[in-house]
Amino acid sequence: MEDKPQSATGIAQYLPWAERVFLALGVLAALMWFNGKAVTEMAFVAVMGLALVYFLSAFLPAESKGDQDKPMDFMALFRSLILPKIAFLGLSVALAGMGLHFFIGSVETEYDVMVYIGTATLGVILVFLIGFFITAPGNSKALMPLAFRVILVLALATYVMMEWL
């Protein structure tokens, strides 16, 4: 997540830090898993922690951009407000479904639907992001961190779903 300005209050000021901690825990769990260790609980905490961070990020107020007197057109509003909120909700749903699936350990659970819905949402978001990067590259630079998150979780969810089949 982008570093918030000093005026960020409440839980919002801790979300970037929490995201980094849970990402580091997830990387550590992945490294241990590749070495043959059992890391179910560590992966569960990392994935569910990231899901919580992204869920809370979806409800952060939008940052004000420059001129408040001039109304935004729909595409600017969609690019700066609506798309990131939907993306963060999709990220949290996909990660929560994967985390619950890891914790339960069964191949056929109702949590698979969460991963399918989150992955489908992220796929649509990625199409919109690519379209924004092609049509308005100057205005879309702020969406680059979001694009990295979407691509990473989409790749992870696709890998996990292929392992389930």
Task: Write up what this structure looks like.
The protein has 165 residues and is mainly α. 69% of the residues lie in helices and 0% in strands. It contains 5 helices and no strands. The protein has helices at 15-34, 40-57, 74-104, 112-135, 144-164. The protein is globular, with a radius of gyration of 17 Å.
The arrangement of helices and strands along the chain is HHHHH
Q: What percentage of amino acids are in beta strands?
A: under 5%
SS class? mainly alpha
Biggest beta sheet attributes: none
Straight-line distance between termini: 32 Å
Oligomer class: single chain
Shape: globular
Helix content range of the residues, please? 55-70%
Q: What is the count of helical runs?
A: 5
Q: What number is the mean pLDDT? A: 85
Structure summary:
The protein has 165 residues and is an all-alpha fold. Helices cover 69% and strands 0% of the residues.
What are the key terms here?
165 residues; mainly alpha; 5 helices; 0% strand; globular
Question: Topology, please?
Answer:
Elements: H1 15-34, H2 40-57, H3 74-104, H4 112-135, H5 144-164
Helix pairs in contact: 1-2, 2-3, 3-4, 3-5, 4-5
